[in-house]
Amino acid sequence: MTQPTDIRREGHRASPDEHLRTALRLAASGVPPLPLRAGKLPFGNCQACARNACGGRPNMKTPGPCTCPAPCHGWAAATTNPHVISSPTWVHAWREAAAVAYHPGGAGLTVVDLDNAEAIARARASLPATRTVLTTRGEHWIYQGVMSSANAVLPGVDVKSLMAYARWLGPGTGAIAPLPDAVRALAVKEPSPARRPPQTLTTPLRGGQGECRHRTPTYLDRGIAMAEQRITEARSAIHATVYRTFLAVLSTHGGCDCLTDAHVARLFTAAQAKGESVRHCIDAWTNARTALGM
Asked: Is 0.90 topped by the overall pTM?
């Protein structure tokens, strides 16, 4: 991945045109950008998604299955599509934006956000050197690879990758190193005895009792394989892609009992590999069934 060469420090006040140009350069290099309001916050829901009617969470960091082109769903609004980025809706957003952000996971990256000198010193003592971007309070260390995001994994340390956004402050300096296990371990939490047991797939998640259209098992297996590929190859709008894929699978294959829990598990596994939780998968599957009247 070739990153843009422009460098933006947090004290620099860019114009709307600069924001748009930076976003288009990022998209061309495979880094999905999105606009940020003042306070490093994503834009609010569009009118069609007011009050999270699309199913998103109130903090807008967990989007619903909305397919509107407005930049209204936090990290999931990030896209590499230049036609969306330069559309009238987004151009208006760039005029109101205070900064440009990007979805690290969508670019195959993980950002270790170090907020103070102590956190930087700790990182230098325990993590391999990699590309570094200066921030107002500290540094962003950028690694090649994706993982689950987590805040406050250590004092002054956040990890931003899948289902998260980071402010774009320039390409930084140094070569990007592979994501080390030491960073992955930061986001691993010890299980709590009081925590509810994980949700598992149940029979109601399968298809209905309609007429079977599967003359051979190959037809269904090919459909599931294509759905897995679509989810796996998604670079942005992951949650929306998962929902639309579930909708397509159920529309084509969900009318009979041929769609088994094993097939659903394959789809959930592909979605979770892109950062979706089991809860999000179940919500998307249930919403898709509801939309189809199942």
From this structure: no
